[in-house]
Amino acid sequence: MRHIQSYVDNAKAKEVGGDSRVKTLLKDIQELAGSLSDQFECFGLVYVSQQPRAGEILLGIAKLGIAKQVGLTKKKRKENLEDNLRSLLKIKRYVILLDDIWDVEIWDDLKLVLPECDSKVGSRIIIMSRNLIQLAKRTYNGRISSCRIHDLLHRLCVDLAKESNFFHTEHNAFGDPGNVARLRRITFYSDNVMDEFFRSNPKLEKLRVLFCFTENPSIFSPMVHFDFKLLQTLVVVMPQNSEAVVTFPSKFGNMTYLCYLRLEGYICGKLPNSIVKLTRLETIDIDQNSMIQLPSGVWEAKQLRHFCYIDNGQASNSCFSTSSFYPNMYSLPPNNLQTLMWISDKFFELRLLHRSINLRKLGIVGVSDSTIKILSTFSLVPKALEVLKLMFFSDPSEQINFSSYPNIVKLHLHVFGSMSLNSEAFPPNLGKLTLVNFMVDRYVLAVLKTLPKLRKLKMVFCKYNEEKMDLSGEVNGYSFLQLEVLHIHYPDGLCK
After folding, report:
1. pTM value?
2. What is the residue range of 397's domain?
3. Residue ranges of the Disease resistance R13L4/SHOC-2-like LRR domain (predicted)?
């Protein structure tokens, strides 16, 4: 058995060589199985399509010789194949290789037919997969954006997580006090259940992750009575349609291991000064609809990586502004920010971005003509920047020019009106462009067609002065050379 497993591992390791090499290795496995005939009474290898049927797989097992080896006649194969195959395999020592089951439901159907592997008999069912970790999405410059795991591996992870109490929801949170005290991850979406749980379980010393979908503005008050020192992730989601005035207790800063904080919904309140003590806090993600005030010390946090926050006129106390809060802001040490969204242009000094040498995502609200001029004239944006989002409250009179920023691959322009554009307005390697509330005419469209590497164009609430959008080629031959995806959401004035 160890010999077969080593060949299987080798097949997975050499997957990069292509299907032909994998099939060669599988052939070697078959030859190896023949040499081990004195140890196994039967062996079968079945190739499974990506749209399999359980009956076809069982018939494939029979056709590969197992049926004859276990004494399954042709008549029994046709009549009641499942029961006959199961009863015979129970008493035989076999190895079955399945290459490659993609669907969890198919495996569930097969388990009803194939007998469970008895450790005393030594039978094995081996499921091979060419790609347990699969590519799900690429970025617009070809790099890997996200991956997914095989469905069977996902099912295995979920089952093992349940067995090991890896996560809980409010439906299975109650039980033995000893087990509840060891909870690490839990999600609540009912205020009554959450309140009852916290009242009956005051000691949750091992809790790491807490997700709360709630309408209760007093959600943070009970937290002062619990020992959440090991809590690493806190996500609170409240309704968007009603204002919730929230009080954050000063003991909020006692969660010394907190590294991710997300507040979503129409939340009003002020984070306590004690949050500055959270030296492991790397992400602060506050919804755009929230009205949260931050202590000025947050901007000094060296460990902060991702900061998403609509300041609503409070950014004057940030280290990116020339204010009395930071009289020596030019001498402040570099920070580790990788994401900075959405800071107000009113209090923003682009000259101070030199402190954020690792910045990859930047969003500015209320962009002024002076900011456009600086961005278009000087390369003040960090070289690592890949995503730039700009929101204008009025029609800009300055012409944007981002041709000097080769690393920017995503650009978001939110303009309540029109903007003059030309081919020099865009970064040379731009892969994704989002236009919001934009006035689109034939001249703007002609410029967009010339972008050499544009793969995705998204237009949201855009206004069109013509009923028809012409995507055909121009006289010069340009017509979206690499465009793959075109999203048009809520068009105004466009018929086709």
Report:
1. 0.68
2. 366-496
3. 208-489
